[in-house]
Specification:
single chain, 4-stranded antiparallel sheet, mainly beta, 0% helix, 3-stranded antiparallel sheet
């Protein structure tokens, strides 16, 4: 069983059964769970340099979830990224 914490979630990965469970941060991970609380996954990739991890939700790896592990509560801030194109004046 692998356990990661991201900004808003606690992720539990049962790599033997290839299933995962996502809980709100602060939830009791040891509380009993139903079989329906778990979702299948097909691959789990970790980037130890950035702390990011990617979960493949289907065999073709076309459905992915990507999150970043945190090491402390001070790193839990969430930031918004804009996808708008920024016009930069020519010099």
């Amino acid at each position: 069983m692998e356990r990661f914490e991201s900004a808003h979630s606690l992720w539990l990965f049962d790599t033997e059964r290839m299933r995962y469970r996502r809980l709100p941060r602060g939830a009791d991970a040891d509380a009993p769970s139903l079989e329906s609380d778990w979702e299948p996954f097909f691959a789990l990739e970790r980037d130890d340099d950035t702390g990011a991890f990617t979960v493949a939700l289907n065999e073709e790896r076309t459905r992915l979830i990507r999150a970043t592990r945190i090491e402390s509560a001070s790193e839990a801030d969430t930031t918004e990224l804009s996808l708008e194109v920024v016009d930069v004046p020519d010099d």
